Amino acid sequence: MNAVTVGDVAAERTIHLTRESLVRYAGASGDFNPIHYRDDIAAEVGLPGVLAHGMLTMGVAVGTIMPWLGDGGRILDYGVRFTRPVVVDAVDGADLHIVARIGQVTDEAVRIDLTVTAADTTVLGKAQVRVRPADAAGAPVGDGTR
Predict the structure, then answer these.
(1) What's the CA angle centered on 123, arms 117 and 124, to 5 degrees?
(2) CATH fold for domain 9-16+54-131
(3) Burial annotation 46-79 (CB, 10 A radius, 16+ → b, else e)
(4) 0.70 exceeded by the pTM?
(5) Statement: residue 40 has pLDDT above 50
(6) For the chain, which terminus, N or C, has the lower number of CB atoms within 10 Å?
């Protein structure tokens, strides 16, 4: 990672989620809540359709910066607000679009602001990742004790 400037786009991608994606995530996470794979249950509880797991959405979003970051161990903290559900259509699925932009740069950390949308609606609010900056050689700054 070279010098970064507030406003720079660090990474951007679109991820296509399908019902199969949700079933695979349920198996990996152990979250088998039927709102994530059954239309009838989702409708019964008043949802607009089958929803992607919030933690899946959150994980896909932060994964966008991994190639840019180079080392996930540089992440200091990560937080989001779940603002809207991601409805995953049985036929068409859903596309998550993620833009990672540099929001703040200090000697201690670089804050990356993630804009995460599905169907032109922001689905994660205040999605921010703080990462340890890299020195000119790409190594983490500091003694590694943080």
Answers:
(1) 105
(2) Thiol Ester Dehydrase; Chain A (3.10.129)
(3) eeeebbbbbebbbebbbebbeeebeeeebbeebe
(4) yes
(5) yes
(6) C
